[in-house]
């Protein structure tokens, strides 16, 4: 499925109505405050009947973006801003003006995230000489029309099957029956495919639309009640890790339907992006809420009630789900080859559990600081 950013490029052409372009600009700038500009979108929609078909088409896309951006963000943000409002009222402080968190960074482009793997070319007579290794049908399937357009996961299954037949051929009487040149060819092919397979499995994952889509910037924060979606996503990651870990294990049997089923689970939602954006939203709102506590402490203000309203309880579930997901990603990386530099940089910036600027540690730091401020205020005012 085409990424949402492609659709955006399609609708922002020169013929797009000026009001549509204005609405797009507002969406890009203040997506976190979608409640504020939805009335504008409804007003534009009321004029829809007087506009041409291309403008109505563009309007439909913009409204679609509005709905996509607003669902999770409205629910999560509403609970966080409600907490801010309750905290401000209890501490006799002004309600903070919410600032929109940044989006996550763009996932590296294919030429920066994939390994270049040269094609292996052999003549038909050479392949015929190795017919005892039973690779002819595999090669023919890879070279036919369907094989050439197969998704990355199926290309990995092909390479895995080819390696198993080449390497397994050495355990038969076939090599002894080959000429010296053909035996050398079998040696070379086996060595080449053995060396390439780890990079092929990397490309199978990082060239798949399902995995790339998990980091889509065309996403929104998770509604708190959907944090449980991590369970199905973790199952998919566990299988992908096991498949990579056991690709050289002949006792492990790959299953195409199972593999595609787990990839389909990843495709159902951009979970990595949703989780990261939820962390960034929560971190921003906690920082804003902490300023209320800092002001109250500086002004020696105690809450009107003996006990402050607690922070949203789903923040604990967010931290747990995020730790589990990022740990699963770490475990997946651990069984792969060393990644290209662009992926290393992306991982450090967005997926790290230690780097201070990454979303998860930043959220943890904001939450711990907020808790410490609440404790200090409680001790002072008790």
- Main sheet, how many strands, which sense, barrel? none
Work out the helix count: 18
Can you give the mean pLDDT?
84
Q: Into which percent range does the helicity of residues fall?
A: 55-70%
Distance between the termini: 57 Å
User: Using only CA atoms, what is the Rg?
Assistant: 27 Å
Shape: rod-shaped
Q: List the helices and strands in order.
A: HHHHHHHHHHHHHHHHHH
| Range of strand content | under 5%
SS elements, strand count: 0
Structural class by secondary-structure content: mainly alpha
Low-pLDDT stretches: 1-17, 23-72
Explain the overall architecture.
With 382 residues, this protein is mostly helical. Among the domains are: 72-105 and 270-381, no CATH class; 117-206, no CATH class. 68% of the residues lie in helices and 0% in strands. It contains 18 helices and no strands. The protein has helices at residues 4-11, 18-29, 34-46, 53-90, 110-113, 124-129, 136-143, 145-148, 152-169, 174-177, 180-206, 209-213, 230-245, 256-267, 271-298, 314-334, 341-351, 359-381. The longest helix is centred in the N-terminal third of the chain and has 38 residues, at 53-90. It is rod-shaped, with a radius of gyration of 27 Å. It starts with a helix and ends with a helix. Mean pLDDT is 84; it is low at 1-17 and 23-72.
In short:
Pfam families: DUF3080. The chain is mostly helical and 382 residues long.
Keywords:
single chain, 382 residues, mainly alpha, 18 helices, disordered N terminus
């Amino acid at each position: 499925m085409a990424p949402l950013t492609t659709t955006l490029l399609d609708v922002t052409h020169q013929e797009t109505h000026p009001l549509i372009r204005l609405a797009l600009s507002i969406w890009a700038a203040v997506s976190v405050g979608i409640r504020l500009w939805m009335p504008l979108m409804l007003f534009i929609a009321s004029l829809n009947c007087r506009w041409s078909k291309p403008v109505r088409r563009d309007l439909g896309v913009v409204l679609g973006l509005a709905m996509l951006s607003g669902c999770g963000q409205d629910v999560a943000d509403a609970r966080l801003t409600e907490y801010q409002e309750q905290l401000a009222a209890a501490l006799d402080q002004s309600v903070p003006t919410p600032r929109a968190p940044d989006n996550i960074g763009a996932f590296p482009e294919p030429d920066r995230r994939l390994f270049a793997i040269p094609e292996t070319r052999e003549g038909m007579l050479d392949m015929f000489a190795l017919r005892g290794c039973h690779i002819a049908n595999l090669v023919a399937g890879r070279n036919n029309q369907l094989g050439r357009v197969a998704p990355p996961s199926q290309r990995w299954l092909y390479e895995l099957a080819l390696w198993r037949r080449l390497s397994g051929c050495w355990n038969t009487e076939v090599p002894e029956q080959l000429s010296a040149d053909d035996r050398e060819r079998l040696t070379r092919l086996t060595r080449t495919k053995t060396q390439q397979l780890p990079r092929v499995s990397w490309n199978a994952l990082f060239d798949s639309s399902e995995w790339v889509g998990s980091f889509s910037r065309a996403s929104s924060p998770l509604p708190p009640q959907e944090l449980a979606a991590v369970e199905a996503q973790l199952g998919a990651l566990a299988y992908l890790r096991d498949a990579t870990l056991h690709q050289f294990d002949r006792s492990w049997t790959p299953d195409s339907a199972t593999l595609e089923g787990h990839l389909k689970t990843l495709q159902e939602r951009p979970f990595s992006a949703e989780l990261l954006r939820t962390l960034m939203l929560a971190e921003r709102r906690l920082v804003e809420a902490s300023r209320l506590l800092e002001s109250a402490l500086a002004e020696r203000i105690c809450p009107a009630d003996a006990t402050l309203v607690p922070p949203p309880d789903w923040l604990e579930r967010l931290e747990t789900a995020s730790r589990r997901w990022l740990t699963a990603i770490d475990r997946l990386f651990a069984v792969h080859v060393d990644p290209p530099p662009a992926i290393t940089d992306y991982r450090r910036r967005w997926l790290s559990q230690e780097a201070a600027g990454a979303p998860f540690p930043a959220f943890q730091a904001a939450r711990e600081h907020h808790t410490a401020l609440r404790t200090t205020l409680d001790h002072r005012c008790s």
